Amino acid sequence: MNNLSVHFEGVSKVYPHFTLDNISLELPTGTIMGLIGANGAGKSTTIRILMGLVHQDQGRVHVLGREMPQQQAAAKLDIGFVSEDMRLYGTATLAWHLKFVRSIYPQWDQPYAETLLRRFDLKPEQKIKGLSHGQRVKAALLLSLARRPRLLVLDEPTTGLDPVARQEVLGELMAVLADEDRTILFSSHNTLDVEQISDQITFIDRGRIIASDDKEIFLDRWRRLRLVLSPEAELPRLPGIVEVSGSGHLPVLVTNNFEPALLSACSDAGATVQAVDPMTLEEIFVANVHSRREKQIV
Amino acid sequence: MNYTMVKTLILKDWYLQRWAILASLVGTMATLGIIASGGNVAFLLGLILLIMVIISIGAQLSVSTIVAERKEQTLPFVMSLPISYWEYTTSKIWGNLIIFLVPWLTMVVGSVALLLYVPKAHGLIPYTCIMATEILMTTCLILATAVITESQGWTVATIMVGNLAVNGIGYAVAHIPGIARGMWGSKIAWSPAASVVLLAEITMTTLLLGVAFFVQSRKKDFL
Question: Does B64 contact chain A (CB < 8 Å)?
Answer without folding.
Answer: no
